[in-house]
Amino acid sequence: MQEMIRVAVDAMGGDYAPAEMVKGVIDAVTLRQDIKVYLVGRKDAVEKELKKRSYSGSQIEVIHAEEVIETAEPPVMAIRKKKQSSIVMGMNMVKEKKADAFVSAGSSGAILVGGQVIVGRIKGVERPPLAPLIPTEKGVSLLIDCGANVDARASHLVQFAKMGSIYMENVLGVKNPKVAIVNIGAEEEKGNALVKETFPLLKNCPDVNFVGSIEAREIPHGQADVIVCEAFVGNVILKLYEGLSGTLVGVIKQGMMQSLKSKIGALLVKPSLKKTLKTFDATEYGGAPLLGLNGLVVKTHGSAKAKEVTNSIIQCVTFKEQEINEKIRKNIGTSPMEE
Amino acid sequence: MQEMIRVAVDAMGGDYAPAEMVKGVIDAVTLRQDIKVYLVGRKDAVEKELKKRSYSGSQIEVIHAEEVIETAEPPVMAIRKKKQSSIVMGMNMVKEKKADAFVSAGSSGAILVGGQVIVGRIKGVERPPLAPLIPTEKGVSLLIDCGANVDARASHLVQFAKMGSIYMENVLGVKNPKVAIVNIGAEEEKGNALVKETFPLLKNCPDVNFVGSIEAREIPHGQADVIVCEAFVGNVILKLYEGLSGTLVGVIKQGMMQSLKSKIGALLVKPSLKKTLKTFDATEYGGAPLLGLNGLVVKTHGSAKAKEVTNSIIQCVTFKEQEINEKIRKNIGTSPMEE
């Protein structure tokens, strides 16, 4: 019998929970027979959604979680106090090896804290980075770290580069992924203290195909597969990416609605445009993994709909099949920096 | 007789120098009779461009500068060695009060170094920030600092907030400008060490209308007039803004060219779209001032064309008329932090 990949999904997190979560889960188990999903959340609410559609009953199991962690709650306190929340219970399943992965669209802070505190780090990993894929002209790049661990050290960034390379090579299938560090100029002597300290370490790191600095202007052109930065800068890049894309598309739509002539034009360009803009839609690529944990935790957008949930679950399968954590364990464990 | 505003313009800096610089200068003096421009650069090249058009001869004077600082040159060395360069000569004119302002599309590094070393800081100003205007849904915001001075301290950021407020209020005419600090969450307890230290200082600063944190996602929505950050983060925001806008517009154009139907549509939407996207074009708003100097230095984009040069020169007039430097001197001088 084929081994099942077991994914716990937070049914209660995100703007469209539980409806879109449940829909995404059903789509995922319909696509692949080797997935078993544990839907963690309020049983009545989840079952109400499940009843709306047909699916393979043996592939979905509801795990009742009485509590929900809200986005505004202070994360550390929420993780400590709400033992019966979907996030804490889902993460405990990963910790206890009852699930291979946990997917949530809930509170970023709680997911980042819970990942470290409940699931725990792989031995040798100093910090687990949050690594979303961002769309570029050429496909996608992994932006690592966008998490909550600000004020990083150079050794953290080197580990991010290694873990990011393993992920891009094995989950996305990018051979010998190009790694760049976010900088304010292309030259080696540019940058702040952290970048200046990290640059030579990456340059001399045998496990990483380091191509040097990348200016923020070049990121959308897709010239690097793994984009290394500390979390504050990563968060700014990720959020500006999302905000500016949304604003520009809005401005363009508005522009097209200004006259009768342009409205007719808009109808004609719409199908082609929709296809093109889809490549710039982050939700197509699933959620962001929190790397370096004893198990997999995936954070999707708070605004995730069914498609992103489905893609995130499929992503967990590849992660497990490709034995990413074993590779990280081996790579970080044998790192000269760790000895 | 009306007092003339004297602006030295680097005729040799930028991708389209000297042609577009000269064109921009001629447009500026044609628009306003109270401007006198010193075109600093290679006399033969500049005069060749000047001969192509007619203009008020008394308003433009060519100052011969034998040397040119190239973009790739190490800035400190270039400023020290190339005494006959257009940048060094133009800045010396500001220092010696022979010009009120200097506008250049040349090497950012050399302009930032030259501003500090040649023109010099206003007494009490710890660091002169580079403060470009970025387009938003509502108009523009001042992004301060995008310069070369990374690893800033909290006291620097407070000064940026003050100088930025004075600039937005007096040059852009924004009453009681809203000041926000770039952060990775809206709550006061979020952020890196620098932001956490700066937040209460801004909150308690009587000269600043501080509205709290701004996430990068919100920047394009124009919810703050002055956006305070340290230079590394500012540089990332500015360059990603430019890069992503360009990429998205390119992707959209490409999308519109995919079929005959969409091509016809593109022709129909083009006029309306062009007008809308213009509001998102940074070159409409002139260059970025380097604030807090004993005189004004304005850095335009390297890719600046005539229009941006003209707008930057007009910007210098408002700066002088509104006595921005006197206001900065007074405000920073009386700051409790400086005593």
Give the largest interface. Answer: A-B, 64 and 64 residues
Strand order of the largest sheet of chain A: 3-2-1-4-11-10
Q: Quaternary status of these chains?
A: homodimer
Cα distance spanning the termini of chain A: 41 Å
Strand content of chain A: 15-25%
Radius of gyration of chain A, taken over Cα atoms and rounded to an integer in Å: 21 Å
The shape of chain A, in one word, is globular
Measured as a percent range, the helix fraction of chain A is: 40-55%
Structural class of chain A: alpha/beta
Report the strand count of chain A. Answer: 11
Instruction: Work out the helix count of chain A.
Output: 11
Give the uncertain stretches of chain A in residue-range form. 335-339
Which series of helices and strands of chain A comes N to C? EHEHEHHEHEEHEHEEHHEEHH
Quick overview of this protein structure:
Chain A has 339 residues and is α/β, with parallel strands linked by helices.
Question: Key terms for this structure?
Answer:
alpha/beta, 44% helix, five-stranded mixed β-sheet, six-stranded mixed β-sheet, 11 strands, 339 residues, homodimer
Tell me what the structure shows.
Two copies of one chain form a homodimer. The first copy, chain A, is an alpha/beta fold and 339 residues long. Helix content of chain A is 44%, strand content 16%. Chain A contains eleven helices and eleven strands. In chain A, strands 3-2-1-4-11-10 form a six-stranded mixed beta sheet, with helices on both faces. In chain A, a hairpin with a 5-residue loop joins β10 (288-290) and β11. The longest helix of chain A has 26 residues, at 231-256. Mean pLDDT of chain A is 91; it is low at 335-339. At the A-B interface, α8 and α9 of A face α8 and α9 of B.
